[in-house]
Design goal:
The chain is mainly beta and about 325 residues long. About 5% of the residues lie in helices and about 50% in strands. The protein is built from three helices and 14 strands.
Length: about 325
């Protein structure tokens, strides 16, 4: 069944176009709270710290820089029986363009995770986020700085912005269904999320409102244990925001190597494709409580005239703390 799921995922993903408007990562599967607040607390362990860094289009004069950091943990309460709560924080910073247009966001995530059966879990999550959009108008040039003979950047411009920053708050929600085979590493999960539900105003002009379109995400991850030492993994993300849509598909293999310790060394290698935009190789390593990933976008969109196919690198890092649990508290299963 899950082998068919991997094949069908590839076919579906090839039917969409790729564009984006919001903060995004090629390694979306290593940025769980960025994709869906329902991932809060949904991992093997008790406390998780993670971060993602992306430097896009380094060959253009002003590259795009994106950074995200998150923290989440489980809360076990006796009255919840076969369920638990998750809570976390997420911080995002994105900067691009000649005027250093930036987005700064700080969010609080809450989730409720219910064990439906021995191998099935359902999680629902909510996100409240505060943000600021800002730019530096002093770094911009305008047409009226042309004096009739030459362009004079020292000449004052009559163009002006009412304000150079705006604060807003943001609402998001989502759900995830998760399956973990008890007798192997085979697993599958699928979910959806709605971000910017309140469509906040992010305009720099008092007289004109610009609303941030709702971001709808559909995602599907699946892994099949083929041998004792090897898994095949598929990760797919579909995102829709206004007139834009993005599809990213990553296929990889995971090898498990015995190091003599309780935890094996896990190496992962694969390739991903953002439809209509970029192809990227992916390398990952997981040992003890650490997990790291690296990818590099090879741009193939019409913008490669400026980028020379140099989309840019992306890094991810996470660390998980596991505590000793009281017996019969909650059965925790890994996501990947």
């Amino acid at each position: 069944m899950l082998r068919h799921l991997l094949i069908s995922s590839l076919i579906i993903s090839l039917s969409w176009c790729a564009h984006s408007q919001d903060i995004h990562f090629s390694q979306f599967f290593n940025a769980p709270l960025q994709v869906n607040p329902a991932f809060t607390g949904l991992f093997s362990g008790d406390v998780r710290f993670g971060g993602n860094y992306r430097n896009q289009w380094q060959s253009v004069p002003v590259p795009y820089t994106t950074f995200s950091a998150y923290f989440d943990q489980k809360f076990y309460l006796p009255i919840l029986n076969n369920s638990m709560l998750g809570g976390g924080l997420i911080f995002n910073y994105d900067r691009a363009g000649d005027a250093n247009l930036s987005w700064t966001q700080l969010g609080i995530n809450l989730s409720y995770i219910q064990q439906l059966a021995d191998e099935h879990f359902l999680s629902g999550g909510f996100q409240l986020k505060g943000g600021q959009r800002a730019l530096d108008p002093n770094l911009l040039n305008f047409g009226d700085q042309y004096n009739g003979d030459v362009f004079d950047p020292s000449q004052a411009s009559q163009e002006s912005l009412t304000k150079s920053s705006i604060a807003y708050f943001d609402l998001g929600a989502g759900a995830v269904w998760y399956f973990q085979d008890e007798d192997s590493r085979t697993h599958a999960q699928t979910g959806f999320s709605f971000m910017h539900v309140n469509q906040p105003n992010v305009s720099f002009f008092e007289e004109e409102k610009i609303h941030l379109n709702m971001l709808i995400s559909l995602h599907q991850n699946a892994g099949v244990q083929l041998t004792d030492q090897f898994d095949l993994v598929s990760n797919i993300l579909w995102q829709f925001q206004g007139a834009y849509m993005e599809t990213v598909w990553v296929l990889s293999g995971k090898g498990y190597f015995d190091t003599g310790a309780d935890t094996p060394l896990v190496l992962q290698a694969g390739v991903g494709y953002r439809l209509g935009d970029a192809l990227f190789p992916y390398l990952g390593v997981q040992y003890l409580n650490w997990k790291a990933g690296f990818s590099y976008d090879i741009n193939n969109s019409p913008f490669n005239v400026a980028t020379a196919k140099k989309g840019g690198p992306e890094f991810s890092l996470s660390y998980i703390i596991s505590k000793v649990k009281p017996p019969d508290t909650f059965k925790s299963c890994p996501i990947f």
